[in-house]
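Sample entry (410 residues):
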Amino acid sequence: MGVERRPLWAGRTLALLGILLVALNIRTAVAALSPIIPRIAEDIPINGVGIGFLGMLPPIAFAASGIAAPVVARRFGLENALILACVAMVAGPLLRALALDYLTLVVGSIVVLAGMGFGNILLPPIVKKYFPDRIGLVTTAYATLLSVSATIAPIIAEPVAAAAGWRTSVALWAVLAFTALVPWVGLRIERALHHRRDPDDTPVPEAQPELLGRMWHSRTAWAITLTFIVSSLSAYACFAWLPSILVDIAGTSALEAGALVGLFALMGLPAALVVPILAARMRNVGVLIHVGVALFVLGYGGLLIAPTTATWLWVALIGSGPLIFPLCLALINLRTRTPRASVALSGFVQSIGYAGGSLGPLVVGVIHTATDSWTPPLLFLLATSLAGSVAGIILAKPRFVEDEIAARGT
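Predicted structure, serialized as tokens:
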């Protein structure tokens, strides 16, 4: 049974702008910090453990948001929950910029990352709510902007910090976050002024607690989650440690390392443009997962074998591996029949996925500290990437999570 297609902008312009601007903001605080850590350390003492902990915070905050965001959305509404997320994304960078000690820097990071985590969880169901007829297109658009934000942030963070100080570089992202707040506030004002409720203003269908619990019985849910873990573990480990790895084993300068982190993030852009559309049309999406795993293996293998030769190529290959991330975002909607199940699957996949991904920066830091070498950490990242092949086998056949749950008789 198909969904009636409507003009993309008709009656939902503010919602589309809001989705795109939130997407443009929910990677900046992650990608913009590691290139300027040495400058921050000149004012605030940070050791290797402290850097590793900051690298862990994004996936931990995103995992916690997978539990909290559906609850907040159920109580206050999906749009109001996104407004709260945008406020946090404005306040967090300002707290970071004002930090005089490590604790305040951590608190500011938690605030901004919590807002971004809410955005992560709520964007798939709000796409399903406002654009059920354009899931592939809108998912492609916002996944593309996720990659754009992750690309821009590390590239400009160091030059801005060099010219105006690291506090200005950090605070800059509060201004961008404010733009994401405007459409959602405007949407609520518009609805209030017109005292209007239309099909797009119906209460958001939230996941019932028992449905969330039943996700544990779906092989499809677990396969998407494993794919998400592989992507997030590699991504957050690289955002936290790739600059240091490149300086130490490839002999790059700090500025070059920041640019290469930008290249790492940029390589997600082509995947964001095409993968959700391909996923909506392909029967066997497992092929895409196997391609992503192969790219990870080639990239990490290149850094292990010939780090000073074609360093940009190895970084580009590692950055291409996370094509499986926009695939996961698309599958949250493509492997569910209802918005209610989409919310449940989004919370399940992202809470567990980011929790697993949070181990990346910590484990890489611990292994490097214990061995005083980058070879064992790179071998760890290569090995964990191979786990994605298991998910590729499971997701080779299209199944809906509701059907698997019903078949289990739960």
